[in-house]
Design brief:
The protein is of the alpha+beta class. The chain contains nine helices and twelve strands. Strands 6-12-11-8-9 form a five-stranded mixed beta sheet. Strands 2-1-3 form a three-stranded mixed beta sheet.
């Protein structure tokens, strides 16, 4: 049996390697006071070791206790208050007094059941919002580690694609669908031409608190991947990516004129209601007008191609 001089060491050895809500919130000194007078009925001897093993069985290996402790962010304090209300009066009552193991088992099991009932009424985790980012508000308390488990998402969000025509105005927002701390800072970076999430390919563009990155008039040099990284203090919270494709105006105009030219070559003056649409009722154009349309389209195509 452990002596009082060795009881701190005994507690750490007697409990299993897995923790529980009991060990998260009840200190070792109170546990020793609680178990001081534990009597083994079979041998009628005081045995503190056996009391710790009983605590281990009733709390540490009880999945209902662990599950009841899975509360939302900030409610671990209430867990401690609930458990203290069950254990501390018992520790004071049992300290320096002898009680049979059957009494201990009944009282400790009742304490565990009361903890489960009260803790289960506390708010649960608010939830994690996929698919990315460090989300502390979505964390859940874990009685096995005595810590909050963060949402298991990567920092890097999937790349969003944006397609625009040259000389267009474009806005990209550094926004996420989950709560952020108050002291955030944004760093915008750019990887020219490539579509990537490789951090070493990006060059820093701006740093500050502005979530908006705006390009008043896009050009081909703006094509590439934009990364926005949100920080809080020294911690990176999330990295968002936008891949911007810029289509030259010449190419866009060429495509539109090609459609006009294709329309002008339809047999017998048939027209399409819209590019790619079904043939409309026959509408015969005068031959001179048809020729003018053809020549105009050809000249425009030639001008765009050479210029």
């Amino acid at each position: 049996m452990c002596t009082s001089a060795l009881w701190f060491m005994c507690v750490s050895l007697l409990f299993s390697t897995a923790l529980s809500c009991y060990q998260c919130f009840v200190n070792v000194e109170d546990s020793f006071r609680l178990c001081w007078g534990h009597i083994l009925t079979e041998h009628n001897v005081r045995n503190v070791d056996s009391c710790f093993r009983m605590l281990d069985h009733i709390f540490n290996n009880n999945q209902r206790v662990i599950q009841a402790g899975r509360v939302g962010k900030g409610y671990d304090k209430q867990l401690k208050e609930i458990l203290d209300a069950e254990i501390l009066p018992m520790a004071q009552e049992f300290n320096k007094k002898l009680n049979k193991d059957t009494v201990y088992e009944e009282r400790l099991q009742t304490a565990a059941d009361n903890f489960i009932a009260a803790a289960s009424k506390l708010p649960r985790v608010s939830g994690c919002v996929p698919p990315c980012g460090f989300q502390s508000t979505g964390a859940v308390y874990n009685c096995i580690t005595c810590q909050y488990d963060s949402c298991k998402f990567p920092l890097d969000c999937p790349v969003k694609e944006i397609k625009v025509t040259e000389n267009s105005r474009i806005r990209m927002w550094c926004d996420v669908p989950f709560p952020l701390p108050n002291d955030i800072e944004m760093i915008w970076r750019f990887a020219e031409e490539v579509k990537t999430q490789q951090v070493d390919q990006f060059q820093e563009v701006t740093v500050g608190v502005d979530r908006l990155y705006s390009i008043p008039s896009t050009s081909l040099q703006h094509q590439g991947t934009y990364q926005c990284e949100i920080y809080s203090g020294q911690r990176s919270i999330v990295r968002l990516y936008y891949y911007l494709t810029v289509t030259p105006q010449v190419v866009a105009g060429h495509t539109e004129l090609q459609e006009i030219f294709d329309l002008s070559l339809l047999p017998g003056g048939w027209l399409l209601t819209a590019p790619g649409g079904p043939l409309h009722s026959p509408l015969l154009l005068p031959s001179s007008l048809l020729l003018t349309v053809c020549l105009t389209a050809l000249l425009l195509l030639l001008f765009l191609t050479l210029g």
